[in-house]
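Dear colleague,

As promised, here are the two records you asked about, laid out in our usual form so they can be pasted straight into your sheet.

NAME FIELD: protein one
SEQUENCE, THEN STRUCTURE:
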Amino acid sequence: MLNVMSSLPFWEGHIVDSVQEQEDGSLLIVLQACPASDALCGACHQPCALVHERRRRKVRDRDMLDKRVWLDVPVRRLDCHHCDARVAEHIAWLDRRARITHRVRLWVEALAQLLPIAHIARLTGLHWHTIKEIDHRRLQHLHGDFSAEGVRRLVMDEFAFALHKGHRYATVALDAERMRVLWVGEGNSREAIRPFFERLGEEGCQRIEAVAMDMNTAMDLEVRQQCPNAEVVYDLFHVVARFGREVVDRVRVDQANTLRAEPKARQVIKRSRWLLLRNRDNLKAEQAIQLEELLAANQPLATVYLLKIELKEIWYAPSVREGARRWKAWLNLALESQIAPLVQFAKRLAKYRRGILASSIYPMNSSVLEGVNNRIKVIKRMAYGFRDASYFFLKIKDAFPGKTR
Protein backbone atom coordinates (compact mmCIF):
# COMPACT_ATOMS: atom_id res chain seq x y z
CA MET A 1 0.00 0.00 0.00
CA LEU A 2 2.85 2.39 0.82
CA ASN A 3 4.27 1.91 -2.68
CA VAL A 4 0.89 2.79 -4.22
CA MET A 5 0.54 5.87 -1.98
CA SER A 6 4.01 7.09 -2.91
CA SER A 7 3.01 7.37 -6.58
CA LEU A 8 -0.13 9.48 -5.97
CA PRO A 9 0.11 13.05 -7.32
CA PHE A 10 -2.03 14.65 -4.58
CA TRP A 11 0.69 16.04 -2.35
CA GLU A 12 3.14 17.96 -4.51
CA GLY A 13 6.56 18.46 -2.90
CA HIS A 14 6.02 15.63 -0.41
CA ILE A 15 6.47 11.88 -0.24
CA VAL A 16 4.62 9.29 1.84
CA ASP A 17 6.62 8.12 4.83
CA SER A 18 4.05 5.77 6.38
CA VAL A 19 0.35 4.85 6.44
CA GLN A 20 -1.29 4.01 9.74
CA GLU A 21 -4.83 2.78 10.37
CA GLN A 22 -6.39 4.51 13.40
CA GLU A 23 -8.71 3.02 16.01
CA ASP A 24 -11.74 4.67 14.40
CA GLY A 25 -10.92 3.05 11.04
CA SER A 26 -9.48 6.21 9.43
CA LEU A 27 -6.09 6.38 7.76
CA LEU A 28 -3.24 8.61 8.94
CA ILE A 29 -0.76 9.25 6.14
CA VAL A 30 2.56 10.64 7.37
CA LEU A 31 4.28 12.84 4.77
CA GLN A 32 7.83 14.07 4.52
CA ALA A 33 9.23 16.90 2.43
CA CYS A 34 10.60 15.65 -0.88
CA PRO A 35 14.41 16.00 -0.80
CA ALA A 36 14.45 16.92 -4.49
CA SER A 37 12.03 19.85 -4.04
CA ASP A 38 12.97 23.28 -2.72
CA ALA A 39 10.88 24.90 -0.01
CA LEU A 40 9.00 27.94 -1.35
CA CYS A 41 8.53 31.15 0.63
CA GLY A 42 4.91 31.66 1.70
CA ALA A 43 5.11 35.38 0.85
CA CYS A 44 6.98 35.61 -2.47
CA HIS A 45 6.90 31.91 -3.52
CA GLN A 46 10.64 31.95 -4.28
CA PRO A 47 12.88 28.97 -3.36
CA CYS A 48 14.36 29.31 0.09
CA ALA A 49 17.02 27.18 1.79
CA LEU A 50 17.03 28.81 5.24
CA VAL A 51 14.74 26.91 7.63
CA HIS A 52 13.97 28.69 10.91
CA GLU A 53 11.93 25.87 12.47
CA ARG A 54 9.98 22.73 11.60
CA ARG A 55 6.49 21.83 12.78
CA ARG A 56 3.90 19.24 11.85
CA ARG A 57 0.22 19.81 11.15
CA LYS A 58 -2.63 17.29 11.03
CA VAL A 59 -5.01 18.06 8.17
CA ARG A 60 -7.99 16.37 6.58
CA ASP A 61 -7.81 15.04 3.03
CA ARG A 62 -10.54 13.60 0.85
CA ASP A 63 -11.84 10.12 1.69
CA MET A 64 -10.34 7.10 -0.07
CA LEU A 65 -13.03 4.53 -0.74
CA ASP A 66 -14.77 4.14 2.66
CA LYS A 67 -11.85 5.48 4.70
CA ARG A 68 -11.47 8.90 6.27
CA VAL A 69 -8.00 10.24 5.44
CA TRP A 70 -5.82 12.42 7.66
CA LEU A 71 -2.41 13.76 6.72
CA ASP A 72 0.49 14.44 9.08
CA VAL A 73 2.26 17.22 7.15
CA PRO A 74 5.63 18.85 7.91
CA VAL A 75 5.42 22.64 7.67
CA ARG A 76 8.70 24.57 7.67
CA ARG A 77 9.06 28.17 8.80
CA LEU A 78 11.51 29.90 6.49
CA ASP A 79 13.83 32.92 6.64
CA CYS A 80 13.48 34.22 3.09
CA HIS A 81 16.45 36.16 1.74
CA HIS A 82 14.37 37.32 -1.28
CA CYS A 83 11.67 39.26 0.57
CA ASP A 84 13.25 39.35 4.05
CA ALA A 85 10.21 37.64 5.59
CA ARG A 86 9.96 34.89 8.17
CA VAL A 87 6.88 32.91 7.12
CA ALA A 88 5.60 29.36 6.77
CA GLU A 89 6.46 27.70 3.48
CA HIS A 90 4.04 27.68 0.54
CA ILE A 91 2.36 24.31 0.03
CA ALA A 92 0.49 24.18 -3.29
CA TRP A 93 -2.33 21.92 -2.08
CA LEU A 94 -2.80 23.42 1.41
CA ASP A 95 -3.70 27.00 2.34
CA ARG A 96 -1.83 28.78 5.08
CA ARG A 97 -3.10 27.71 8.52
CA ALA A 98 -5.74 25.49 6.85
CA ARG A 99 -6.77 22.16 8.36
CA ILE A 100 -8.24 20.79 5.13
CA THR A 101 -6.63 20.26 1.72
CA HIS A 102 -7.77 21.88 -1.53
CA ARG A 103 -9.24 18.53 -2.58
CA VAL A 104 -11.55 18.54 0.44
CA ARG A 105 -12.56 22.15 -0.22
CA LEU A 106 -13.46 21.39 -3.84
CA TRP A 107 -15.37 18.29 -2.73
CA VAL A 108 -17.41 20.29 -0.24
CA GLU A 109 -18.04 23.09 -2.75
CA ALA A 110 -19.50 20.57 -5.21
CA LEU A 111 -21.68 18.92 -2.55
CA ALA A 112 -22.95 22.28 -1.26
CA GLN A 113 -24.58 22.95 -4.62
CA LEU A 114 -26.69 19.82 -4.24
CA LEU A 115 -27.27 19.10 -0.54
CA PRO A 116 -28.10 20.91 2.72
CA ILE A 117 -25.16 21.55 5.03
CA ALA A 118 -26.39 19.08 7.66
CA HIS A 119 -26.34 16.25 5.09
CA ILE A 120 -22.83 17.17 3.92
CA ALA A 121 -21.63 17.19 7.53
CA ARG A 122 -22.89 13.62 8.01
CA LEU A 123 -21.40 12.49 4.70
CA THR A 124 -17.95 14.03 5.15
CA GLY A 125 -17.58 14.07 8.93
CA LEU A 126 -16.66 17.77 8.79
CA HIS A 127 -18.12 20.30 11.23
CA TRP A 128 -21.21 22.29 10.15
CA HIS A 129 -19.36 25.59 10.51
CA THR A 130 -16.42 24.38 8.41
CA ILE A 131 -18.74 23.44 5.53
CA LYS A 132 -20.70 26.66 5.79
CA GLU A 133 -17.52 28.75 5.75
CA ILE A 134 -16.22 26.94 2.65
CA ASP A 135 -19.50 27.47 0.81
CA HIS A 136 -19.77 31.07 2.03
CA ARG A 137 -16.34 31.90 0.59
CA ARG A 138 -17.28 30.27 -2.74
CA LEU A 139 -20.52 32.24 -2.96
CA GLN A 140 -18.85 35.50 -1.93
CA HIS A 141 -16.27 35.04 -4.67
CA LEU A 142 -18.95 34.36 -7.29
CA HIS A 143 -21.72 36.73 -6.21
CA GLY A 144 -20.31 39.18 -3.69
CA ASP A 145 -20.64 42.01 -6.18
CA PHE A 146 -22.57 42.58 -9.39
CA SER A 147 -22.12 44.41 -12.67
CA ALA A 148 -24.91 46.75 -13.75
CA GLU A 149 -23.70 46.78 -17.34
CA GLY A 150 -26.60 46.30 -19.74
CA VAL A 151 -29.27 46.23 -17.01
CA ARG A 152 -32.35 48.07 -18.32
CA ARG A 153 -35.30 46.45 -16.60
CA LEU A 154 -35.63 45.41 -12.98
CA VAL A 155 -38.00 43.30 -10.93
CA MET A 156 -38.10 44.19 -7.24
CA ASP A 157 -39.97 42.24 -4.60
CA GLU A 158 -40.03 41.62 -0.88
CA PHE A 159 -40.20 38.30 0.95
CA ALA A 160 -40.44 37.22 4.56
CA PHE A 161 -37.66 35.25 6.22
CA ALA A 162 -37.04 34.16 9.79
CA LEU A 163 -33.49 33.12 10.62
CA HIS A 164 -34.04 34.20 14.21
CA LYS A 165 -37.11 34.75 16.38
CA GLY A 166 -39.84 36.68 14.64
CA HIS A 167 -40.40 37.43 10.97
CA ARG A 168 -38.34 39.92 9.04
CA TYR A 169 -38.54 41.14 5.46
CA ALA A 170 -35.92 41.29 2.76
CA THR A 171 -35.95 42.82 -0.73
CA VAL A 172 -34.64 41.19 -3.89
CA ALA A 173 -33.67 43.04 -7.08
CA LEU A 174 -33.54 41.03 -10.29
CA ASP A 175 -32.42 41.77 -13.83
CA ALA A 176 -35.71 41.02 -15.62
CA GLU A 177 -34.13 40.30 -19.00
CA ARG A 178 -31.40 37.92 -17.84
CA MET A 179 -33.23 36.41 -14.85
CA ARG A 180 -30.27 37.28 -12.62
CA VAL A 181 -30.58 38.27 -8.97
CA LEU A 182 -28.43 41.36 -8.60
CA TRP A 183 -28.92 42.20 -4.94
CA VAL A 184 -30.67 41.01 -1.78
CA GLY A 185 -30.90 43.15 1.35
CA GLU A 186 -32.66 43.15 4.69
CA GLY A 187 -35.76 45.32 5.07
CA ASN A 188 -38.38 46.73 2.72
CA SER A 189 -38.25 50.44 3.57
CA ARG A 190 -36.80 53.19 1.38
CA GLU A 191 -33.66 53.31 3.53
CA ALA A 192 -33.27 49.53 3.28
CA ILE A 193 -33.34 49.40 -0.53
CA ARG A 194 -31.31 52.59 -1.12
CA PRO A 195 -27.93 50.75 -0.94
CA PHE A 196 -28.92 48.83 -4.07
CA PHE A 197 -29.28 52.02 -6.09
CA GLU A 198 -26.04 53.36 -4.63
CA ARG A 199 -24.24 50.26 -5.89
CA LEU A 200 -26.06 50.56 -9.23
CA GLY A 201 -24.49 54.01 -9.58
CA GLU A 202 -25.81 57.19 -11.16
CA GLU A 203 -25.17 55.98 -14.70
CA GLY A 204 -26.80 52.61 -13.98
CA CYS A 205 -29.87 54.30 -12.46
CA GLN A 206 -30.21 56.58 -15.49
CA ARG A 207 -30.21 53.52 -17.76
CA ILE A 208 -33.15 51.80 -16.01
CA GLU A 209 -36.28 52.11 -18.16
CA ALA A 210 -38.79 49.99 -16.21
CA VAL A 211 -39.14 48.44 -12.76
CA ALA A 212 -41.78 45.81 -11.99
CA MET A 213 -42.96 45.64 -8.38
CA ASP A 214 -45.81 45.06 -5.98
CA MET A 215 -47.92 48.05 -5.00
CA ASN A 216 -45.37 48.98 -2.34
CA THR A 217 -45.39 52.73 -1.67
CA ALA A 218 -41.88 52.88 -0.19
CA MET A 219 -40.35 50.98 -3.09
CA ASP A 220 -42.34 53.02 -5.60
CA LEU A 221 -41.16 56.34 -4.16
CA GLU A 222 -37.51 55.27 -3.96
CA VAL A 223 -37.48 53.99 -7.54
CA ARG A 224 -38.99 57.23 -8.84
CA GLN A 225 -36.38 59.26 -6.97
CA GLN A 226 -33.35 57.17 -7.88
CA CYS A 227 -34.28 56.19 -11.47
CA PRO A 228 -35.84 59.27 -13.10
CA ASN A 229 -36.19 57.58 -16.51
CA ALA A 230 -37.87 54.45 -15.18
CA GLU A 231 -41.53 53.55 -15.58
CA VAL A 232 -43.02 51.71 -12.61
CA VAL A 233 -44.92 48.59 -13.71
CA TYR A 234 -47.22 46.93 -11.19
CA ASP A 235 -46.93 43.18 -11.32
CA LEU A 236 -49.96 41.10 -12.29
CA PHE A 237 -49.05 38.23 -9.97
CA HIS A 238 -49.13 40.43 -6.87
CA VAL A 239 -52.31 42.32 -7.82
CA VAL A 240 -54.26 39.14 -8.57
CA ALA A 241 -52.99 37.56 -5.34
CA ARG A 242 -54.17 40.61 -3.41
CA PHE A 243 -57.54 40.50 -5.23
CA GLY A 244 -57.89 36.90 -4.14
CA ARG A 245 -57.19 37.72 -0.49
CA GLU A 246 -59.10 40.98 -0.19
CA VAL A 247 -62.06 40.36 -2.50
CA VAL A 248 -62.64 36.71 -3.39
CA ASP A 249 -61.87 35.41 0.11
CA ARG A 250 -63.87 38.15 1.81
CA VAL A 251 -66.93 37.62 -0.41
CA ARG A 252 -66.70 33.85 0.08
CA VAL A 253 -66.71 34.25 3.88
CA ASP A 254 -69.57 36.77 3.74
CA GLN A 255 -71.64 34.46 1.56
CA ALA A 256 -70.96 31.51 3.86
CA ASN A 257 -72.13 33.59 6.85
CA THR A 258 -75.45 34.31 5.13
CA LEU A 259 -76.15 30.57 4.95
CA ARG A 260 -76.00 29.69 8.64
CA ALA A 261 -79.50 28.23 8.36
CA GLU A 262 -78.33 25.89 5.57
CA PRO A 263 -75.31 23.98 6.94
CA LYS A 264 -74.68 21.88 3.83
CA ALA A 265 -74.70 24.82 1.44
CA ARG A 266 -72.56 26.79 3.87
CA GLN A 267 -69.93 24.03 3.99
CA VAL A 268 -69.76 23.93 0.20
CA ILE A 269 -68.87 27.63 0.07
CA LYS A 270 -66.50 27.47 3.04
CA ARG A 271 -64.54 24.68 1.38
CA SER A 272 -64.37 26.35 -2.03
CA ARG A 273 -61.41 28.63 -1.33
CA TRP A 274 -58.87 26.91 -3.56
CA LEU A 275 -61.41 26.36 -6.33
CA LEU A 276 -61.93 30.12 -6.50
CA LEU A 277 -58.29 31.15 -6.15
CA ARG A 278 -56.62 28.59 -8.39
CA ASN A 279 -56.24 29.27 -12.12
CA ARG A 280 -59.03 27.64 -14.08
CA ASP A 281 -56.54 25.89 -16.38
CA ASN A 282 -55.00 24.11 -13.37
CA LEU A 283 -58.26 22.51 -12.22
CA LYS A 284 -59.03 18.84 -12.79
CA ALA A 285 -62.19 17.94 -14.69
CA GLU A 286 -64.25 17.21 -11.56
CA GLN A 287 -63.01 20.40 -9.90
CA ALA A 288 -64.01 22.46 -12.94
CA ILE A 289 -67.51 21.02 -12.71
CA GLN A 290 -67.70 21.86 -8.99
CA LEU A 291 -66.60 25.41 -9.76
CA GLU A 292 -69.27 25.83 -12.45
CA GLU A 293 -71.97 24.58 -10.09
CA LEU A 294 -70.77 26.90 -7.31
CA LEU A 295 -70.73 29.99 -9.54
CA ALA A 296 -74.14 29.15 -11.00
CA ALA A 297 -75.62 28.93 -7.49
CA ASN A 298 -74.04 32.12 -6.06
CA GLN A 299 -74.20 35.39 -7.98
CA PRO A 300 -71.76 37.48 -5.85
CA LEU A 301 -69.07 34.76 -6.09
CA ALA A 302 -69.65 34.50 -9.84
CA THR A 303 -69.26 38.26 -10.19
CA VAL A 304 -65.95 38.54 -8.32
CA TYR A 305 -64.60 35.40 -10.02
CA LEU A 306 -65.35 36.73 -13.51
CA LEU A 307 -63.90 40.15 -12.62
CA LYS A 308 -60.73 38.43 -11.43
CA ILE A 309 -60.38 36.93 -14.93
CA GLU A 310 -61.15 40.27 -16.58
CA LEU A 311 -58.63 42.04 -14.36
CA LYS A 312 -55.84 39.89 -15.79
CA GLU A 313 -56.78 40.91 -19.33
CA ILE A 314 -55.77 44.53 -18.62
CA TRP A 315 -52.13 43.42 -18.31
CA TYR A 316 -52.26 41.64 -21.66
CA ALA A 317 -53.52 44.66 -23.61
CA PRO A 318 -51.52 45.23 -26.84
CA SER A 319 -51.44 49.01 -26.34
CA VAL A 320 -51.97 51.67 -23.69
CA ARG A 321 -55.16 52.78 -25.46
CA GLU A 322 -56.61 49.28 -25.37
CA GLY A 323 -55.43 48.83 -21.77
CA ALA A 324 -57.21 52.04 -20.77
CA ARG A 325 -60.40 50.85 -22.45
CA ARG A 326 -60.23 47.50 -20.62
CA TRP A 327 -59.46 49.27 -17.33
CA LYS A 328 -62.43 51.63 -17.66
CA ALA A 329 -64.79 48.75 -18.48
CA TRP A 330 -63.49 46.71 -15.54
CA LEU A 331 -63.73 49.63 -13.11
CA ASN A 332 -67.32 50.38 -14.12
CA LEU A 333 -68.34 46.74 -13.62
CA ALA A 334 -66.64 46.65 -10.23
CA LEU A 335 -68.31 49.85 -9.00
CA GLU A 336 -71.73 48.83 -10.35
CA SER A 337 -71.56 45.43 -8.60
CA GLN A 338 -72.25 47.08 -5.21
CA ILE A 339 -70.20 44.28 -3.61
CA ALA A 340 -68.43 46.19 -0.82
CA PRO A 341 -65.00 44.41 -0.85
CA LEU A 342 -64.88 44.64 -4.65
CA VAL A 343 -65.83 48.33 -4.70
CA GLN A 344 -63.23 49.15 -2.05
CA PHE A 345 -60.51 47.25 -3.92
CA ALA A 346 -61.37 48.93 -7.23
CA LYS A 347 -61.19 52.41 -5.71
CA ARG A 348 -57.78 51.67 -4.16
CA LEU A 349 -56.53 50.14 -7.40
CA ALA A 350 -57.50 53.25 -9.39
CA LYS A 351 -54.56 55.11 -7.81
CA TYR A 352 -52.18 52.68 -9.50
CA ARG A 353 -53.71 52.96 -12.97
CA ARG A 354 -50.57 54.32 -14.68
CA GLY A 355 -48.38 51.48 -13.41
CA ILE A 356 -50.96 48.93 -14.54
CA LEU A 357 -51.28 50.36 -18.06
CA ALA A 358 -47.48 50.55 -18.34
CA SER A 359 -47.49 46.76 -18.68
CA SER A 360 -48.59 47.16 -22.31
CA ILE A 361 -45.32 49.01 -23.04
CA TYR A 362 -43.12 46.91 -20.77
CA PRO A 363 -44.65 43.41 -20.64
CA MET A 364 -42.75 42.22 -17.56
CA ASN A 365 -43.75 38.60 -17.22
CA SER A 366 -45.27 37.96 -13.78
CA SER A 367 -44.10 34.34 -13.89
CA VAL A 368 -40.59 35.70 -13.29
CA LEU A 369 -41.50 36.86 -9.80
CA GLU A 370 -43.56 33.78 -9.09
CA GLY A 371 -40.58 31.60 -10.01
CA VAL A 372 -38.24 33.63 -7.82
CA ASN A 373 -40.61 33.47 -4.86
CA ASN A 374 -41.08 29.71 -5.20
CA ARG A 375 -37.33 29.11 -5.46
CA ILE A 376 -36.68 31.24 -2.37
CA LYS A 377 -39.20 29.11 -0.46
CA VAL A 378 -37.32 25.96 -1.50
CA ILE A 379 -34.00 27.49 -0.37
CA LYS A 380 -35.61 28.43 2.96
CA ARG A 381 -36.81 24.85 3.44
CA MET A 382 -33.33 23.51 2.70
CA ALA A 383 -31.76 26.22 4.86
CA TYR A 384 -32.49 24.83 8.31
CA GLY A 385 -29.40 25.68 10.27
CA PHE A 386 -28.59 28.90 8.40
CA ARG A 387 -27.59 31.37 11.08
CA ASP A 388 -26.80 34.55 9.16
CA ALA A 389 -28.67 36.53 6.54
CA SER A 390 -25.67 37.25 4.30
CA TYR A 391 -25.13 33.54 3.60
CA PHE A 392 -28.84 33.00 2.91
CA PHE A 393 -28.88 35.94 0.50
CA LEU A 394 -25.83 34.62 -1.34
CA LYS A 395 -27.61 31.27 -1.75
CA ILE A 396 -30.50 33.13 -3.39
CA LYS A 397 -28.12 34.92 -5.78
CA ASP A 398 -26.47 31.61 -6.60
CA ALA A 399 -29.87 30.13 -7.51
CA PHE A 400 -30.36 32.86 -10.14
CA PRO A 401 -26.99 33.45 -11.83
CA GLY A 402 -28.71 34.68 -15.02
CA LYS A 403 -28.98 33.57 -18.60
CA THR A 404 -25.95 33.98 -20.83
CA ARG A 405 -26.43 36.50 -23.60
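NAME FIELD: protein two
SEQUENCE, THEN STRUCTURE:
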Amino acid sequence: MLLPDYDFMSDTTEQTSTRFVTFIGPSLKRFDLAVTTTNRFYGKKLVTDLQSGKTAIIGPDDLEEEGYLEYTYKLTEEEAAELTQFLYFVVGTVHFTD
Protein backbone atom coordinates (compact mmCIF):
# COMPACT_ATOMS: atom_id res chain seq x y z
CA MET A 1 0.00 0.00 0.00
CA LEU A 2 1.42 3.37 -1.00
CA LEU A 3 1.05 6.59 0.97
CA PRO A 4 -0.68 9.44 -0.81
CA ASP A 5 1.61 12.24 -1.98
CA TYR A 6 2.35 13.79 1.44
CA ASP A 7 4.86 16.60 1.87
CA PHE A 8 6.44 15.64 5.21
CA MET A 9 7.77 18.57 7.24
CA SER A 10 9.20 16.27 9.91
CA ASP A 11 9.14 12.58 10.77
CA THR A 12 11.32 11.56 13.70
CA THR A 13 11.31 8.96 16.42
CA GLU A 14 12.89 9.53 19.81
CA GLN A 15 13.02 7.96 23.25
CA THR A 16 10.91 9.93 25.73
CA SER A 17 9.86 9.46 29.32
CA THR A 18 6.30 9.89 30.52
CA ARG A 19 5.19 10.44 34.10
CA PHE A 20 1.59 9.51 34.86
CA VAL A 21 0.17 11.29 37.89
CA THR A 22 -3.28 11.51 39.46
CA PHE A 23 -4.09 13.92 42.27
CA ILE A 24 -7.01 15.75 43.81
CA GLY A 25 -6.57 19.39 44.73
CA PRO A 26 -8.26 21.37 47.52
CA SER A 27 -11.13 22.20 45.13
CA LEU A 28 -11.72 18.43 44.88
CA LYS A 29 -10.94 18.54 41.14
CA ARG A 30 -9.25 15.32 40.07
CA PHE A 31 -6.32 15.66 37.68
CA ASP A 32 -5.16 12.67 35.59
CA LEU A 33 -2.06 13.78 33.73
CA ALA A 34 0.59 12.36 31.45
CA VAL A 35 3.71 14.53 31.49
CA THR A 36 6.10 13.68 28.67
CA THR A 37 9.72 14.77 28.65
CA THR A 38 11.25 15.05 25.19
CA ASN A 39 14.25 16.67 23.52
CA ARG A 40 11.89 18.80 21.43
CA PHE A 41 10.11 22.01 22.39
CA TYR A 42 13.12 23.75 23.95
CA GLY A 43 12.90 21.90 27.26
CA LYS A 44 9.16 22.33 27.71
CA LYS A 45 6.97 19.34 28.63
CA LEU A 46 3.99 17.84 26.85
CA VAL A 47 1.22 17.82 29.44
CA THR A 48 -1.86 15.76 28.56
CA ASP A 49 -5.07 15.85 30.57
CA LEU A 50 -6.11 12.21 30.21
CA GLN A 51 -9.75 12.98 31.05
CA SER A 52 -10.24 15.49 28.24
CA GLY A 53 -7.48 14.37 25.88
CA LYS A 54 -6.17 17.95 25.65
CA THR A 55 -2.40 18.36 25.37
CA ALA A 56 -0.26 21.48 25.70
CA ILE A 57 3.45 22.21 25.48
CA ILE A 58 4.20 23.83 28.85
CA GLY A 59 7.22 25.54 30.33
CA PRO A 60 7.65 27.98 33.22
CA ASP A 61 6.83 30.95 30.97
CA ASP A 62 3.45 29.41 30.12
CA LEU A 63 2.60 29.07 33.81
CA GLU A 64 3.08 32.83 34.15
CA GLU A 65 0.66 33.52 31.28
CA GLU A 66 -2.62 34.68 32.81
CA GLY A 67 -5.55 32.47 31.82
CA TYR A 68 -3.42 30.02 29.82
CA LEU A 69 -4.29 26.87 31.77
CA GLU A 70 -7.93 27.90 32.19
CA TYR A 71 -8.29 28.31 28.44
CA THR A 72 -6.22 25.28 27.41
CA TYR A 73 -7.75 22.74 29.79
CA LYS A 74 -11.17 24.44 30.34
CA LEU A 75 -10.58 24.92 34.08
CA THR A 76 -11.90 27.32 36.66
CA GLU A 77 -9.48 29.88 38.07
CA GLU A 78 -9.20 27.85 41.30
CA GLU A 79 -8.55 24.58 39.45
CA ALA A 80 -5.95 26.26 37.23
CA ALA A 81 -4.17 27.63 40.31
CA GLU A 82 -3.95 24.10 41.72
CA LEU A 83 -2.61 22.72 38.44
CA THR A 84 -0.12 25.59 38.19
CA GLN A 85 1.23 24.82 41.67
CA PHE A 86 1.79 21.19 40.70
CA LEU A 87 3.30 22.01 37.30
CA TYR A 88 5.89 24.36 38.80
CA PHE A 89 7.45 21.26 40.39
CA VAL A 90 7.28 19.37 37.10
CA VAL A 91 8.51 21.90 34.54
CA GLY A 92 11.01 23.60 36.81
CA THR A 93 12.69 26.83 35.90
CA VAL A 94 14.79 27.69 32.89
CA HIS A 95 18.39 28.66 33.60
CA PHE A 96 20.18 30.41 30.75
CA THR A 97 23.95 30.28 30.60
CA ASP A 98 26.30 32.77 28.95
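A couple of things worth noting about protein two: The first strand starts at residue 17 and ends at 24. Residues 45 and 58 are 5 Å apart (CA to CA).

Best,
R.
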